[in-house]
Specification:
It is built from five helices and three strands, in the order αβαααββα. The protein has a three-stranded antiparallel sheet. The model has no long low-confidence stretch (mean pLDDT about 85). The chain is extended and about 85 Å long. The chain is an alpha+beta fold. The chain has one domain: 50s Ribosomal Protein L17, Chain: A (Alpha-Beta Complex), CATH 3.90.1030.
């Protein structure tokens, strides 16, 4: 009989696994959608759903519980002030896993982990991030200025 199999170990020791989950949860709150492997997404979903339940109830004790998992105060505020009100009318199932297929390098199955109700704000931020990249490409295609050779009077 296999006891103690409730936690997926993900091939990591406790400290590394804890840091991984904290980073995945912080990224999920910041961007509201993250791309990761299916195994990591399933494990991170357990923690994310729990934190959203804390945020929906919104007491000081719940805020402190969330702060134990999410170290950045700005992300705790975002979870309580922006994300939790959007999800407050739901009984559960605050996140979804959308499978994407297999990663070319090692054939790991990839997925998006995202909140069910997302804001339109992150999509606008992604577009803004892409614009400077295009500007850099057009500058790179332009004529490069090379210093002209100086001819001596020899």
């Amino acid at each position: 009989m296999r006891h103690g199999d409730r936690v997926k170990k993900l091939g990591r020791k406790y400290e590394h696994r804890r840091a991984l989950m904290r980073n995945l949860i912080a990224a999920l709150i910041r961007y509201e959608r993250i791309r990761t492997t299916v195994a990591k997404a399933k494990e991170a979903r357990r923690h994310a759903e729990r934190l959203v339940r804390f945020a929906i109830s919104g007491t000081l004790a719940d805020r402190r519980q969330v702060a134990r998992m999410v170290s950045e105060p700005a992300l705790v505020r975002k979870l309580f002030n922006e994300i939790a009100p959007r999800l407050a009318d739901r009984q559960g199932g605050y996140t979804r896993i959308h499978r994407l297929g297999y990663r070319p390098g090692d054939s790991a199955e990839m997925a998006y982990l995202e909140f069910v109700v997302r804001s339109e704000k992150p999509a606008a931020e992604e577009k803004e991030k892409k614009q400077p990249k295009k500007q850099r490409e057009t500058k790179a295609k332009g004529v490069s200025k090379k210093p002209a050779k100086k001819q001596g009077s020899a």
